[in-house]
Structure formats: C-alpha cells, structure tokens
From TrEMBL:
This is Aminotransferase. InterPro entries: Aminotrans_3, Aminotrans_3_PPA_site, PyrdxlP-dep_Trfase, PyrdxlP-dep_Trfase_major, PyrdxlP-dep_Trfase_small. NCBIfam families: PRK06105.1. One of its GO terms (molecular function) is transaminase activity. Keywords: Aminotransferase, Pyridoxal phosphate, Transferase. The keyword Transferase applies.
Length: 446
C-alpha cells in the first residue's frame, strides 16, 4: 500500500489532494502529537469539542465501567437502559429554560435533523401539516445530513449534493461587518435585519413556516456575533407568527461561552435546543435534543394518533456514550468549568485585542473561549481566503493547530486551558502572523 495515499474518504477535505493527511496519534491535556512525534497545542479542541482536554481519566473510567456492566441496550418500544434515562434527567435538570424531554442521537447533524422533524411533527399534530418550511441564516452551520445540510447556508455544503432548497429559506447573516450595514449603529442594523426577516416570512407565507434555527454565535460561518438586541426582536416576530425557535448549541453548549448554555447569556427562549460536542467532551459520539414542554406534549399527542413516535436511531441513548456524558457533566459542574472559562477568557480577549488595527486584519471578535481574527487578504495583495490558510500553515510550524473559515482564523481551545497556556497560544499565533505578513517569501506563498 503506497504510504502517501489516504484510503479514507475524508470529510470536509480537498479529496483531489491525493496525499497523506496530517495524522494525530496521541493527546494529553491541551496538546496532541502526530505520527512524526511532533507536538501541537490544539487551539480548536479537535472540532471545537474536546472541552476537558485529551487525558481526562474519569471519562475513560466511566466508559470502561459501563462497557463491563452493559455495553449496549437500545431505547425503542418503551424499553431503554438506566444510563440514558438518568442522563435525560440530568439534562432536564440543568437546561437553561424549562424543558420537557430529551432525545438522544449521535451527532450535531442528527440532533438538528431531529429538531427540524420535531418542529414539523409539532405543527402536524396541531392540525397544521402545511407548516414545513425552515428558516436559517446564510452563514449558519447546522451539519451536513439532508435536513441539517439544507439548513446550513454555506455554499460548499450545497454544491453538487442536491439538498432540499424548496422548504428551506435563508435569512441574512447577522454580521455587523456586512457591507449593507456599514455605517449603521447596532440598533439600525437590527432594524434592517428585522425588516428583511419579516419580508422573508411574508413572502414564504407565515402559515407555511415551521421553525427558525440559529446558533447563538455562528461558529463555522466565521464566528459571527449578532448585534445586541438581535435575538430579542427576532423572538417577537417568531412568537407573533407561531414559528418555533431551535437554538443550535452544538458549539456553545456546556461551558464554552462562560455559562452552561449560551441561551442564558443571550436571553433566548427556544422551543428546542440541540447539543453534542461538549456533552461528552467528544470522547464518544452523542447528541441531545432538548425539547420544551409545549413541543414534547404535541409529540406525545401526535404519536397517539399514529400509535407510536416514528423517529429514533439504534444508538439513541447508547449507554456507553451516555455514561461518558454523565461523567462529563459531573466534572463540568464540580470544577465549575463555565466559571473557569469566565476567569481565563480575558487572556484570549487581550491576545486578540493586540490584532486590532493591524495591517492585514479586518476585525477581531470573541466571547468566552471562542475567538476569531478576520484577515483582510486584499490589504496585503492576496486573494480572499489565502491569508487565513497561510497563517494556519505558519502556526502549524510553530506547534499550534487552528482552523480558518475563509480568512477568519478561529480559536476554540479545550475549556481546561489555563491563562498562561492561552498567553502561550496567542504568542505562537502572533509569531505565525508576523511570519506571513512580514516575510516577502511567505507573503508570496500566501
Ligand atoms: N451545529 C453546529 C453549530 C456545528 O458547529 C456543527 C459541527 N461543527 C454541527 C451542528 C454538526 O455537528 P456534527 O458534525 O457532529 O454532525
């Protein structure tokens, strides 16, 4: 087998590059090591998700204990396992607003597919089957399965895949830097976005819209933080038209923003909350869709008409990831991880602030342990997207792994990171930035 070629159909990758991917083989704390023995600070916690770092023994023990006791029992036909049931109770207990029930899946995508189906089922059970349409943001990311991919606005998720566009509507990205809102105050931007949103609903016909889905902070769309007051106004419109609100907390849930759920910080009152990633610190795949009382009552009512609720996966409530999730939540609470995030977040904010006004930087933004630096590639004579990639390559040379969305480099380190470790991470990033921007050779390569 030739060494250079990957036989894996690699997700979200440039498949035409027939070379060996960067292969990670070990992890410890906030660092990972690759097959060549080189260590890296992981600035993005795997995929925004390894919140407790790579060597939490309690999670390994929780998985092993459960594997020995009961390695699997599913949850169909009113038979389940004790761990899934206990985790559902834990989640209802910590939910940011009163929630009725919890549905388990395996990924953020399936959590959002489930939420979308539940919203439609809700309306159907209330005698309104025509309410099928889903509104999401043009810069929103909700996954890549058929429904979650259809709700995802990013063009490369759509191209070639024949996703459903008919029932999915795209609202303006609430990006304060959007050219159309340049020069506006925050409240003027919100007015402008609301007008656009109302028009979208009117054109679609409010009686055909089931739900609106949004991340509180839009992650993979470029770390977009909507202007102040955005969600409060939006929720008024949704309530007026009886459109359900799905908050996608797949990135923000379980501490990343400095509270257990961003729903609390942003004053949201969603009908459904979707979570995954940090629920198990990604040690095993599991997602949880938290369903509000009103919706869960309607799901029960609908299932009465049919005789059963026709949704669920073999691995819904799998006891091993559920045991890891219970242990993760216990650790997050015992160690007050959200409080820790609030304590160390100023280190990230200070590191990011130093980039304000830099030659090739258009914007800097952050919240909790989420940060982003948006480069202005044109300012150094480069094509859009190229500067972000060049800085990523330079950061890797300096032992730091990051991700870029276009020209926005994002930071989402493990939540256990210390202030000093953040300072070190930002020093490496700063050096990488100067490697690219100050070096004629690397500038050229960018
Ligand atoms: N929602 C959000 C906000 C996400 O960031 C992601 C993944 N990055 C997803 C959903 C999809 O999750 P998954 O990749 O586990 O399907």
């Amino acid at each position: 087998m030739p060494e250079a070629i990957s036989h894996m159909l690699e997700p979200h990758s440039a498949l035409y590059l027939d070379t060996r991917p960067h292969v990670i083989t070990e992890g410890s704390g906030i660092e990972v090591r690759d097959e060549d023995g080189q260590s890296f600070v992981d600035g993005v916690a795997g995929l925004w998700s390894v919140t407790l770092g790579y060597s939490e023994p309690r999670l390994v023990e929780a998985a092993t204990r459960q594997m020995n006791k009961l390695p699997f029992y599913g949850s169909f036909n009113h038979r389940t396992n004790d761990v899934a049931l206990a985790l559902a109770a834990d989640l209802v207990d910590i939910a940011p607003i009163p929630m009725g029930k919890v549905f388990f899946g395996n990924s953020g995508s399936d959590a959002n597919d489930s939420a979308i189906k539940f919203a439609r089922y809700y309306h159907w059970s209330q005698g309104r089957p025509e309410r099928r349409k889903i509104i999401s943001h043009s810069c929103g990311y909700h996954g890549t399965t058929l429904a979650a991919g259809s709700a995802t606005g990013l063009p490369h998720i759509h191209h070639g895949f024949g996703l459903d566009t008919g029932d999915f509507l795209s609202a303006h990205c609430p990006n304060p830097l959007h050219p159309s809102s340049r020069g506006m105050s925050e409240s003027e931007q919100v007015d402008w976005l609301m007008e656009d949103f109302e028009n979208l609903i009117e054109e679609a016909g409010p009686e055909t819209v089931a739900a609106f889905i949004s991340e509180p902070i839009l992650g993979a769309g470029g770390l977009i933080i909507p202007p102040a007051g955005y969600f409060a106004r939006l929720q008024e419109i949704l309530a007026r038209h009886d459109i359900l609100f799905i908050a996608d907390e797949v990135i923000t849930g379980y501490g990343r923003t400095g509270s257990m759920f961003a729903t609390t910080e942003f004053g949201l009152s969603p009908d459904i909350i979707t979570t995954a990633k940090g629920l198990s610190s990604s040690y095993l795949p599991i997602s949880a869709t938290l369903v509000g009382e009103r919706v869960s009552a309607a799901l029960a009512e609908g299932s009465k008409q049919i005789g059963t609720f026709g949704h669920g996966f073999t691995y819904s409530g799998h006891p091993v990831p559920a045991a890891v999730a219970r242990e993760t939540l216990a650790i997050v609470r015992e160690r007050d991880i959200p409080g820790h995030v609030r304590d160390v977040a100023p280190h990230l904010a200070r590191g990011l602030d130093k980039f304000r006004g830099s030659e090739a930087v258009r914007d800097v933004r952050g919240h909790g342990l989420l940060g982003g630096v948006e480069f202005d590639a044109a300012a150094v004579g480069r094509e859009p997207g190229q500067l972000g990639q060049a800085v990523l390559r330079a950061a890797k040379e300096r032992g730091l792994l990051l991700r870029a969305m276009g020209d926005t480099v994002v930071f989402a380190p493990p939540l256990i990171i210390t202030g000093e470790q953040i300072d070190d991470l930002m020093e490496r990033f700063t050096a990488a930035y100067h490697d690219v921007v100050d070096s004629p050779r690397l500038r050229q390569a960018a």
